[in-house]
Amino acid sequence: MRSVRTLLIIAAAAAAVACGDGYGTNPDVPTPARVVTGTGDITGAVAEFRTVLGDPVNGGAAGSQPAGRREIGWDGVPADLTNNELFPGDFFNTRAPRGVVFSTPGNGFRVSDNNVADLDPSFAQEFAFFSPRKTFLAAGSNVMDADFRVPAGSDPAAVRGFGVVFADVDRPNSAILEFFGREGSLGRFEAPVRSAAGSLSFLGVAFESKIVTRVRITSGRAAVAAGGRDISSGGANDLVIMDDFLFDEPQVVR
Ligand SMILES: [Ca+2]
Ligand SMILES: [Ca+2]
Questions:
Q1: Fewer CB within a 10 Å sphere, N or C end of the chain?
Q2: Res. 110: pLDDT tops 90
Q3: How far is the CA of 174 from the centre of ligand 2 (A)?
């Protein structure tokens, strides 16, 4: 069994990496070209990251396009996959291709049109959407992976940058993006704590070239579940949900 001291050392190391000390110190791990963050009114931060990723928006086109970006706002997900745990992890590579496949150690994924107030009425006061009005979360876990594919295909692909809108980040180190390439981790990056004025936070990270094959998303300190309570409402854990995902065009890994 690990000692308490060992666990404390592990926790301290994890916190240091999450604060951004994990990149730039290892010459084998490239420093990102851009890290874009925002809280409160995140419109400007999202617009800035869209510029970093480039135009056009490639929608649901099959196959890798020569340039531009893909976006997921969840708002077009059909009703039969909304407010339940039936959302398929490959939806955005098969039914509406964006070149990304999701997985989670939890039960599945939930798309919500009510900021998950159907799970607990208190959530209506905690969470918010960015693009009206559907949001997203893993079910039964606070962790998920986004693996990139040639859109509508099965070949592994890579991107340069990836960003997520988070809702209700109350504590540091509650919402994390960890980027992976062929050689392993490219660094962990922390979304900023929400402002007093609004529920939303944004984090987008872009590297110089398409070296990102997977992003591990940690959304909150615990799974959002029926009967749960956020730390701001007397609960034990900081709960967080997600809205828009943005990433540059997935292209085949070279
Ligand atoms: Ca949305
Ligand atoms: Ca929270």
A1: N
A2: yes
A3: 8
